[in-house]
Amino acid sequence: MHRSGVQGEAIRAHVRRTLTPKGELVPVAFVRCPREARMVEMTRCATCGHCAELFVEEATQTPVLSCQLSPAARPRSRAGSSPRPGARSVGEALERETICLEPDVDLKTCAAIFRRFRLGRAPVLDADGGLLGTLSRGRLAAELRRARASCHPGSGGDRRARVAERLSARRVGDVLEPAGATVSDAAPLARAAALLLEAHQDELIVLDERGQVVGAISAREMHRSTRLTFALV
C-alpha cells in the first residue's frame, strides 16, 4: 500500500513464526520504529503518517516498510546476508525470522519443525506472545530416546508407529526448560554481549517493552553486525 508520493528508506521486518497445535506457523512481523527507537508490530505502521509504503519483498517473501523517518536502515543486499553493520541496539541487529512454539504443540510435530529449520532452541510463548520458557534440541532428543526405549523391538507391533504415538501424546508444555537470560530490544549490543558471557549462553531471547517475544539474537550475529570482539560461548 502507498501512503505518500515521497518514498522513505526501506526497513525489512523481523518475522516471528509461532507453531500452533494444528501444525501451522503463524507469522507476526516486527520492525524497529525510528521514531520510538524500539520494535513494534508492523501492523501499527499502516496507520502512521510517516509510512510511505508497506510491501512484501518478492524474492524472500519478507515484509518491508518504507519509512520517511529512517535515515539509515536499509534492506540487506541479498537473502541470508548478515545483520546490518553498524547496528547499535539489539533491535537494529535483528535480521532473521524466529521460530517459536505454543505449549500445546505435540512433540512429534515439534520434532519435524526442529529438523526443517535446523533449530537448536525455540522460545515457548503464551497466548499474548509472552515467554513461558524454551525447548532445546537436546531435550527433544532425550524425549525421543525415552520413547524409543519404551518401545523396544521385542514388544511387538510397528515400533516406529508406537514411538510416533508416544511423542504425539507429549506436549511442549510438559518438557519446558528455563528461558535463561533475556534482553530488551532497546538494549545496546554491548549489553547483550555482556549478558551472553555472564549467562554462558550462545543466544538471547529478545523482548519488547511489554515482555512480548520479538526474536532472538546470537553471539555470532552480534559479532558480524558490529565487529565487536568478545569470546563466543
Q: Largest sheet, order of strands side by side?
A: 4-3-2-7
N-to-C series of helices and strands: EEEEEEHEHEEHHEHEEH
Task: Characterize the biggest β-sheet.
Answer: 4 strands, mixed
User: What is the typical, i.e. mean, pLDDT?
Assistant: 82
Contiguous uncertain segments of 5+ residues: 1-6, 72-86, 228-233
Number of continuous helical runs: 6
Proportion of helical residues: 25-40%
Q: What overall form do the CA principal axes indicate? A: elongated
Class computed from helices, strands and strand pairing? alpha+beta
Cα-based radius of gyration, to the nearest Å: 20 Å
Please write out the topology.
Elements: E1 9-12, E2 14-19, E3 25-33, E4 38-41, E5 51-57, E6 62-67, H1 90-93, E7 98-101, H2 107-117, E8 121-125, E9 131-136, H3 137-150, H4 159-169, E10 182-184, H5 189-199, E11 203-207, E12 213-218, H6 219-226
Helix pairs in contact: 3-4
